[in-house]
Write a structure and sequence with these properties.
Length: about 110
């Protein structure tokens, strides 16, 4: 009925500032990590430097008040996801993303 394109544009307008702020925060605060620069979607996948692993990071994040997904769950071979961090930007406003990065960044080893 012609609603798809209209709704798609609304969704893109809604999520674009969240993606943009996430990429800015990654560039500013986690530039020592590796990540693709998506043009859309709902998350940014980040590979953390050697010395980081999900088994250590998850409890540290929880203690800091931050819930993160186990990156190993996104790989068939769980060992390949040991340093994979999925940053979902879709559920947070730009200012909430900043607060999340404030909690996250000190937990990641360079």
């Amino acid at each position: 009925q012609g609603f798809y394109q209209i709704n798609l544009e609304k969704v893109k307008k809604f999520y674009r500032p969240r993606l943009q702020r996430t990429l800015e925060l990654l560039d500013e605060r986690l530039s020592f990590t590796s990540y693709a620069r998506p043009e859309g979607g709902f998350f940014v996948g980040v590979t953390l430097p050697d010395g980081n692993d999900m088994e250590t990071l998850i409890p540290k994040a929880k203690a800091a008040g931050l819930a993160i997904s186990d990156g190993r769950g996104f790989y068939l071979d769980r060992a390949l996801g040991e340093r994979f961090l999925r940053i979902p930007f879709c559920g947070l406003k730009p200012e909430e993303l900043e607060a999340a990065f404030d909690l996250l960044v000190p937990l990641i080893q360079k």
